[in-house]
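Lab notebook, bench 4. Still working through the backlog of constructs that have no structural model yet. Next entry is a single chain of 191 residues. Request: give me the structure tokens for it.
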Amino acid sequence: MDVAVLFARQDSTYKALPDVDVYDIDRDARTFQGGMPIVAHPPCRAWGRLRAFANPRPDEMNLARLAVALVREFGGVLEHPAGSTLWSAQMLPRPGGARDQYGGWTFAAPQMWWGHKAEKATWFYIVGVGPSDMPPVPLVLGEATHVVQSRKRQDYRPHITKAEREHTPPELAAWLVEVARRCRIEKRIAA
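Model written out:
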């Protein structure tokens, strides 16, 4: 195993990928011991646009904070919805901004580029690999066939299901694992 995936769904597509160590709800990500770069999908409902309507478990916000700390320590990528309040709470760089003190930067892209039915605007916090060393990013033009939600105006398109909101498209999962595989962290020596 050379990449760990933390906070995956039980029926995650990551489980079909080679050399990936997957932590789902049954295999608690808080037990991850390190030693390899990670792909982190911490719960987002306490951090997203609709957080006022969410009912997260008391520990969910700390799972996202833990994911940030683990990405910073071991390298890898954290995925969350665009505009997640986790960015300001953890002082993560905004998309297009300068790198943080860990060398981390944020890439913004719609999951539609990797085959999601909805656009699903997403931010990726990445530590350990720079933009020029990333795997190729697909570009898909046009509109998605579905929406995460809508106000049912004239431009109404079908909604995706809750499961479709939570699943990572297989092409995106493979891409995120490749991003993590390219991550290298230089150990900092205390002065």
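Notes after review: The CA atoms of residues 9 and 166 lie 8 Å apart. The beta strands are 3-6, 20-23, 38-40, 76-81, 105-110, 121-127. Flag for follow-up if needed.
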